Amino acid sequence: MTAAVGGEEALIAGFLPALPRGAHTVVGPGDDCAVVRGADVVTTDMLVESSHFWLDVSSPYEIGARAAAQNLADVAAMGAQPTSLVCALSLPPGMQADWVNEFARGLGERCEKAGAGVVGGDITSGPVLTVSITALGSLEGRAPVLRSGARAGHAVAVSGTLGLSAAGLEVAAQLRGLPRPERARVEDELRRAATGSPAAAAAHCLGIFKAPTPNLSAGVAAAQAGASAMMDVSDGLLRDVGRIARASGVAIDLDQRAWGATPGGQGVPGKLAQPTGPELPDAGSQPSGGAPPSGNGLPGVATLLRRCAQWLGVPAGQVEARVRQWMLTGGEDHALLATFPTPQVAAAAGFQVIGGCAQAGAPEVTVLGQAVGNVVQKTGWDHLQR
Ligand SMILES: Nc1ncnc2c1ncn2[C@@H]1O[C@H](COP(=O)(O)OP(=O)(O)O)[C@@H](O)[C@H]1O
Ligand SMILES: Cc1ncc(C[n+]2csc(CCOP(=O)(O)OP(=O)(O)O)c2C)c(N)n1
Ligand SMILES: [Mg+2]
User: Fold this and answer.
1) Does the chain have fewer CB atoms within 10 Å around its N or its C terminus?
2) What does pTM read for this prediction?
3) Is 332 in the pocket of ligand 1 (CB under 6 A)?
4) C-alpha 173 – ligand 2 centre gap (Å)
């Protein structure tokens, strides 16, 4: 049944039961406004078909989950506890009511897990599917963790994964380029892939692209531990590190821990993504089939990305450079990026240290002391400059 058949009211009545009420909700959906407690921070992010997702790749459940995750990560990045969210949907002609119900289920489940209610929204029609979310959160009496609090001597650290969504986007693009029967065969291969195989890595990255799983509780943990600055990585690590550096008036140098290698270790020289520039050490030569990335931090992420690169057919000599590019410039895993007074404080909050802050001097962001232009061509995503 298309969403149009029962009209707006029937559609809304159909999916409302899938939406969590939330512990901070005084008045939920159904009136002109919701009334919520705990609205110290507010953020909004839109997702637009073909700019953020493809309807032939992501399920409605995944698009709902992703819309929630992207916005909840912004709340967490202030050191706030997400409390509530409103969701506006613009539906293209012919959309099925079941599609909207599944979207609501994905959105609702992620919000419920995060402790947030879905307290209202809007439905309209338009040429492409558009989702617009506004999320609110409570600081629970703490000061917000801004982008501007990093100081010279502070450690730079992340919680979560880097580069998986960017690699997953390439998997999605490769699938979309296949003729129909071949695509079905490859999708089946991804579904059945054996643990530790390149296909399993590709399937995992594709899953993160479709519905990222940021570690939302790390936001409050970082704030409680004394994080000095924080944001979520949506546009790419180097680009977003630059935003903290500029807001705080510090210089930030990242080291090889950012792409899963050991600092000062005997890295095997790897090729850069560009033909020119100095060589950086790679993350060593963990073979595919090594330990799974879960619980293994950024080195585990690099291992997974190497396997995904293999599945994508990246030539062996370019794999290390591609893994580095994904981890340094890929956004949308929505990892939390924070600075802490010391590396020990960062580690105690569950963050992985990837660099440090120094007195400002140009350039603001360097990688092992090198200008980022020597390391990658683009630092991240910009909707208006692609
Ligand atoms: N249309 C807009 N009107 C007002 N402020 C905006 C608009 N678009 C973006 N901003 C603000 O600019 C800043 C940067 O936006 P953005 O890069 O989207 O941040 P984020 O990655 O946290 O979503 C944010 O503080 C955001 O609120
Ligand atoms: C179909 C498709 N193409 C490309 C991308 C890649 N992409 C889209 S937006 C984006 C960066 C995040 O931007 P935005 O949604 O504006 O988040 P914000 O910075 O506002 O948090 C990236 C890497 C994608 N997710 N989907
Ligand atoms: Mg935004």
Assistant:
1) C
2) 0.93
3) no
4) 14
Residue 1, SS3? Answer: coil
Tokens representing 359 are 């007195």
Residue given tokens 């979520």 in the structure block = 232
Ligand 2 center–CA 12 separation, angstroms: 28
List pLDDT tens digits, range 340-353: 999 999 999 999 99
DSSP string, 47-100: EEBTTTB-TTTS-HHHHHHHHHHHHHHHHHTTT-EEEEEEEEEEEPTT-BHHHH
Q: Is 234 in the pocket of ligand 1 (CB under 6 A)?
A: yes
Is ligand 2 within 6 A of the CB of residue 52? yes
List pLDDT tens digits, range 122-137. Answer: 999 999 999 999 999 9
> What radius of gyration do the chain's Cα atoms show?
21
CA dist 264 and 307 (Å) reads 25
Alpha-helical (H) ranges within the chain are: 3-15, 60-76, 97-114, 164-176, 180-192, 198-210, 217-225, 237-248, 297-312, 319-329, 343-348
Q: To test the ligand 2 pocket, which listed residue (55, 174, 205, 235) has its Cβ within 8 A of the most ligand atoms?
A: 235
What's the CA gap between 287 and 368, in Å, rounded? 25
Condensed to tens digits (0 to 9), the pLDDT of residues 261-300 reads: 988 654 433 433 333 334 555 554 443 333 445 568 999 9
Cβ partners under 8 Å of residue 342, min gap 6: 154, 155
Amino acid identity for residue 233 in this structure: V
Which among 43, 46, 48, 52 is the best mutation to test ligand 2's pocket, defined by most ligand atoms within 8 Å of the CB?
A: 52
Closest ligand 1 atom to Cα of 45: 23
Question: Count of alpha carbons within 13 Å of 276, Cβ hemisphere only?
Answer: 4
